[in-house]
């Protein structure tokens, strides 16, 4: 897989500012879903602008009928895997955590999620 990472190493990492500028200019932004490092490296090598790791991994990878069984630890694991394979695409993690914390303020849930993913 090193051959995939070397070719994208010369491309600077996409930033949210660059994606916003692309949007403002009417440019198309490519976003694809990845759940593991080898596919992330392949998509990054292909020049995809952003990679999405979603709680849809509950359906696609784990075989659940919904996304609600996906834990923050499982999301962190898959985001970490994708980050290892990615060199330049903007990385997005998407989960609906308020289902897990229905008694809490969504703002608190957001900060809990950030702290958990940072670990």
Topology:
Layout: H1 2-8, H2 16-24, E1 31-33, H3 37-45, E2 50-54, H4 57-60, H5 72-85, E3 90-94, H6 106-118
Parallel strand pairs: 1-2, 2-3
Helix pairs in contact: 1-3, 3-5, 5-6
Compact overview of the structure:
The protein has helices at residues 2-8, 16-24, 37-45, 57-60, 72-85, 106-118; strands at residues 31-33, 50-54, 90-94. It has 119 residues and is mainly alpha-helical. It has a three-stranded parallel beta sheet with strand order 1-2-3, covered by helices on one side.
Give a description of the structure.
The chain has about 120 residues and is mainly α. The protein has a single domain (about 1-119), classed as Phosphoenolpyruvate-binding domains (TIM Barrel, Alpha-Beta Barrel). Helix content is about 45%, strand content about 10%. It contains 6 helices and 3 strands, in the order H-H-E-H-E-H-H-E-H. The protein is globular. The model has no long low-confidence stretch (mean pLDDT about 80).
Quaternary structure annotation = single chain
User: Which series of helices and strands comes N to C?
Assistant: HHEHEHHEH
Q: How many β-strand runs?
A: 3
The domain count comes to 1
Helix content: 40-55%
Low-confidence parts lasting 5 or more residues at pLDDT below 50?
none
Strand order of the largest sheet: 1-2-3
Mean pLDDT: 82
The rounded Rg comes to 15 Å
Distance between the termini: 26 Å
CATH H-tier superfamily: Phosphoenolpyruvate-binding domains
Number of separate helices: 6
Provide the CATH architecture: Alpha-Beta Barrel
Largest sheet: 3 strands, parallel
| Strand fraction | 5-15%
């Amino acid at each position: 897989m090193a051959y995939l990472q070397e070719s994208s190493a010369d491309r600077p990492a996409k930033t949210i500012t660059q994606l916003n500028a692309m949007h403002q200019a009417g440019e198309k932004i490519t976003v694809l879903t990845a759940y593991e490092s080898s596919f992330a490296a392949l998509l990054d090598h292909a020049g995809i602008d952003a990679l999405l790791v979603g709680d849809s991994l509950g359906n696609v990878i784990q075989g659940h009928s919904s996304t609600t069984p996906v834990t923050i630890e499982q999301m962190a694991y898959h985001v970490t895997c994708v980050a290892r394979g990615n060199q330049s695409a903007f990385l997005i993690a998407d989960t609906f955590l308020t289902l897990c914390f229905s008694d809490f303020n969504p703002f608190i849930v957001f900060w809990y999620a950030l702290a958990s993913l940072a670990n």
